Amino acid sequence: MLLCGVCFGQTDPKARPTYSENGKLIELADLAPLRDCQVMALKGKVKKVKRVADTVVFSLDDKHQRMTFQFPIDRLADAEQSIYSKDFLHKGLVLQANGYQCKGPNVALEAISIERVYQPAPPSSVRRTPFKH
After folding, report:
1. Fold designation for 12-116
2. Whole-number CA gyration radius for the chain
3. Does the model's pTM come out above 0.85?
4. How many whole angstroms from its chain centre is CA 25?
5. In 3-state terms, what secondary structure has residue 5?
6. How far apart are CA 44 and CA 57, in angstroms?
7. Which of 49, 80, 94, 106 could form a disulfide linkage to 58, CB 3.0–4.6 angstroms apart?
8. Could you give the CA distance from residue 25 to residue 120 in angstroms, rounded to a whole number?
């Protein structure tokens, strides 16, 4: 009896979000439980994001390869479910993601974590002014 009470008391674990000082979502960790599968990672631009039923599917492209990742939306707390696509996971943003490849190379990876990658700003062009006498 005691063991059943413990089973009923457990809740689904949620992903761990990280926010920047200005309140923007910059990382989601623990999107998947530990698995005994190959882990793959890619840093690249988000090319496609879609929601299929209760799963978020997205692709990253680094000009040499493309990987597709997925995670169940219910791994996100309510607060992250309402904002993940606005400032964090949208086309054109540079992210790094890693995930488990458990079901073969033609199936989306099960995302473990996703983090925003900040690129250094390009140097501003120095405006030359003509020499004055």
Report:
1. OB fold (Dihydrolipoamide Acetyltransferase, E2P) (2.40.50)
2. 20
3. no
4. 10
5. helix
6. 15
7. 49
8. 19
Core vs surface per residue 23-56: b (16+ CB within 10 A) or e: eebbbbeebbeeeeeeeeebebbbeeeeeeeeeb
User: Considering the chain, what percentage of its residues have pLDDT values greater than 70?
Assistant: 81
Strands (E) across the chain are located at 16-19, 25-29, 38-52, 55-61, 66-72, 94-101, 109-116
Mean pLDDT of 67-77: 95
Residues 33-70 pLDDT 10s: 999 999 999 999 999 999 999 999 999 999 999 999 99
Tell me whether strands 66-72 and 94-101 are parallel, antiparallel or unpaired.
unpaired
Report d(CA 115, CA 98) in Å as an integer. Answer: 9
Residue extents of the structural domains in the chain: 12-116
For residue 3, pLDDT over 90 is answered with no
Output DSSP code: residue 91: T
Given the structure tokens 């990987």, which residue do they identify?
67
- More confidently predicted of 71 and 1: 71
